[in-house]
Every structure is written in structure tokens, then in C-alpha cells.
Amino acid sequence: MSDYKIPKVWEWKEEKNPFGNQPTAGSRFEQKLPVGAQPLQVYSLGTPNGQKVTLLLEELREAGIEAATYDLYKINIGDGDQFGSDFVAINPNSKIPAMVDYSLEEPVRVFESVSILLYLAEKFGQFIPTTLPERTEMMNWLFWQTGAAPFVGGGFGHFFQYAPFPQEYPIDRYTMETKRQLDLLDKHLADKAFILGDTYTIADMAIWPWYGRLVQGKLYSDAAAEFLNVQEYPHLKAWADRIGARPAVKRSLDVAYKEIN
């Protein structure tokens, strides 16, 4: 049992936070981000949320969309690059990925991974349904992913992989929720090739970097996959392998990031 006592007023202790987070928003230092020659400038990192965007961009290239060219710059969140003035001007929430579209008369900033997916899918008319019912079903799953994945990342992943010492209560709590989500996806995919059935969309691209990589043992570690007993989810695993075998998906995982300085 922990001897921690909840104080009347919480106070932030910098020495107890190894991840660079603070209880305030905004930039912490002046920064000049590079802008390359391509119309789309992406500032990101190869995390699950970052992978969503490179996955779609590579799929657009695979589909022959010549205008979907991009420069990809590395935002090292361990070094605090996300708190620089230029990055915060693109994403005031200081989270990767972020993008600027310079192909229009006035540049457009886009932040939050699913917002970027929707922007690019609508801009190029690819991987997004055109009928209202199908589009609504896609949006259902996009909103599900944005609401559900924090329990996997900030919950299970943090306490299983990154917390300074193991803690039974949060590990049990977030493992239970993660397995519930895996079971939900496995049941949904029992008779479907993709999230929307026979149609591959940005819903698959949003969900795969989190849940597909997790059941493949590549999100945190083989130990995490074993701990979650991912073999209980054969339909989800088959979907994950199906997506992972796509040439554009393979390229997206190996894409090179340019340094920002």
C-alpha cells in the first residue's frame, strides 16, 4: 500500500517529472523551424500518432497523388522541441504531429493526428467515403480511436513500460480497459477485412499504429503483447498483419526524418 497522502492543493514538482511536461501551455524558447520545398511540411516523430500521418502520405503516394509530397522533420519530444515558439505557433497544444500546407494562397496549419488525416483525405479525395452513412461510420471509429487510445498509451503503456516502478492498481485498471478495447476490435473485425468492411479508409490508418502494432508486439515490446495475451484476438491480429503488409505502410515505418537544426 502506498503511503501517499492527497494534499489539499496540488503543487508541481519538476524533479519528479522526467518527461518535460509542465502544468502550463505555451512556448518556452525561441525557435525557427525549417521549411522545405514541398507543399506539405510535417513536423513529427515516429510515435503511433506520428505514424498515422506518414502512413496516409505514403498511401497517397502509392495511389499516384503527385501533389501529396512532403518534407518530414523530426520533433524530438524527449529534448522538448515541441515547446519551441515555431512549433507552438502551429500546434498550441505542443503535441506531435503538426503540419502546414503551403499549397494554398494562405498557409493552413493542421494539428492533432486525426485532424490531419481528415484534412489530407478531403483535400485529395482519397481513403474517405462519399456517402453520409459510410462517412458517419468512419467518423464513429475515428472519434472512438481518439477517445480510446489514451487509455492504451497514457494508461497501460505508461504504467507497464515507463513508470519508475511497477504499481498493481493502475496496471490492472488499464490492462483491463486495453483488453476490453482489443476484444471490441476483434469482434468488430470478425467478418470484415477493414474497419468499414471491404473499404480501406483513414479509420484503419488511425487505429492500426496503436492497436495493430500492439497485437504485433511492436508498440511497446513483445513482453507487453505476451502480458496482454494478444493471441486471444485472431481477427484483430489478421487485420493488423493485412495492413502491415501494404507497401505504403512498410515505407511509412522506415521514412527518414530530417533534423530541425
Q: Name the shape in a single word.
A: globular
The chain-level mean pLDDT equals 96
Uncertain runs: none
Spatially, the strands of the biggest sheet line up as 2-1-3-4
Seen as an oligomer or otherwise, the chain set is single chain
CATH class of the domain at 132-245: Mainly Alpha
Structural class, please? alpha+beta
Q: Termini distance? A: 47 Å
**Helical proportion?**
40-55%
SS element count, helices:
9
- Indicate the CATH architecture of the domain at 132-245: Up-down Bundle
Strand fraction equals: 5-15%
The total strand number stands at 4
Task: Describe what this molecule looks like in 3D.
The structure is a single chain. The chain is of the alpha+beta class and 261 residues long. It has a domain at 132-245: Glutathione S-transferase Yfyf (Class Pi), Chain A, domain 2, CATH 1.20.1050. It is 48% helix and 7% strand. It has a 4-stranded mixed sheet, with helices on one face. Strand 1 (40-44), helix 1 (48-62) and strand 2 form a beta-alpha-beta unit. Helix 4 (132-162) packs antiparallel against helix 5 and helix 4 (132-162) packs parallel to helix 6. It starts with 39 loop residues before the first strand and ends in a 7-residue tail after the last helix. The model has no long low-confidence stretch (mean pLDDT 96).
Could you list some keywords that capture this structure?
261 residues; alpha+beta; Glutathione S-transferase Yfyf (Class Pi), Chain A, domain 2; four-stranded mixed β-sheet; 48% helix
